[in-house]
Amino acid sequence: MPDIPEHLLEGFLSSKEVAVDTELQGLRLFRDEVCLVQLCDRNKTVCLVQPERKKAPPNLKRLMEQRTTIKVFHFALTDVAFLRVSLGIQVQSFRCTKVMSKLIRTYSDAHSLRALVMELMGVELDKEAQTSNWFTKSPTQMQLRYAANDVLYLLPVYDTLMEMMERRGALPSGSTALELHEASQAFLPTLVELMINGYGDRDFGWETSLFSH
Q1: Could you tell me if 154 and 21 are in contact, meaning their C-beta atoms sit under 8 angstroms apart?
Q2: CATH class for the region spanning 6-202
Q3: pLDDT > 70: percent of the chain
Q4: For a 10 Å CB count at each end of the chain, is N or C smaller?
């Protein structure tokens, strides 16, 4: 759809959390664009939005910029930066499950969404369409299924990671995992600004040495 339909918008706006993902033309800011935005609420209502080039769909923009609804991404840094640069959407109140996973799943080096959904939900995601051409007016059924699945399991993953952090308790400094989680998530908007303004000098612009020795 070119935008979130009105009959779905109110449900998303009234939700405490909404899962969000994007499919991109590529991974270079200012060169590549957002091709698809996927949304899912706790009722498992999925909406796939295919925006026009360089034009923010009004209902999508309203939802993304509303502060009372938490937007849950996996690797939010990329999605939020691209929504800003490609569509002029300033995402407010967002969380990243990849950050959560790295904070609490210290027993594993596997922090992809596929690995999380497999371990925490017992579901194997089909990633065959991940690197396909998303810059098309007519995505295939395989692409649409892939896009929908990337948000369908994201809120249950978010909930499970939150429960894991609540059980962890105090760390050596006395801070809790939840406190470090909140501090890390609060820093993400600043990190997005650094990437957008050219301070990403590693990993093709997605990592910065600004805080290195």
Answers
A1: yes
A2: alpha beta
A3: 98
A4: C
